[in-house]
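dumping this here before i forget
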Amino acid sequence: MFQQQRALCSILCALMCGITIHSTFAFTSSSFEPRNNMHITKSNHPTKLHMSSFFADATPPKETAAAVQRDANGNAITVGQKIAMVPHNSIKAYHVQKSSYGSFDSTTKQFIPQDEANKTRKTSCLLLPEGLRGEVITVHDTNSADRPQPVLVKFGADDEERSDGYSLPSAFSMHLSANEIIVVV
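structure:
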């Protein structure tokens, strides 16, 4: 037992001092035993493993300021703000209830349900209109996580007060990128 402890201490000391150990131990079913041909050499070669490299990853990361998300007009986006969708080609919400699949009439702002006869994956979604309003629930820090759509927005149903004129069939939340929304004051 004492020999095993002494051998392990020798290895740890050698690694901390930048010493390379060749052919250190053989494993047997009962214990670790030093081999007869063990030899130790001192090396200052830059590619050799030093004990300090084991602890290099243990240092705490440097504090970086949280990335501020800005809307299409350059305004900072924060939790609780009201937002509106900017003019776009087509942003589709696929993760809504089936009763919410469809689009909106551009003049009357009324919901048009999906045509059940021509149902495809491309049309099984809610097409978000320009000017649709919602509330920011979460703004993720893009410095700490890779998020292509870092702003989580909740869009409420008709029973809630809607100042945009759209009649949503159901409430839903959706992740959006900062350039897809504008802050409404």
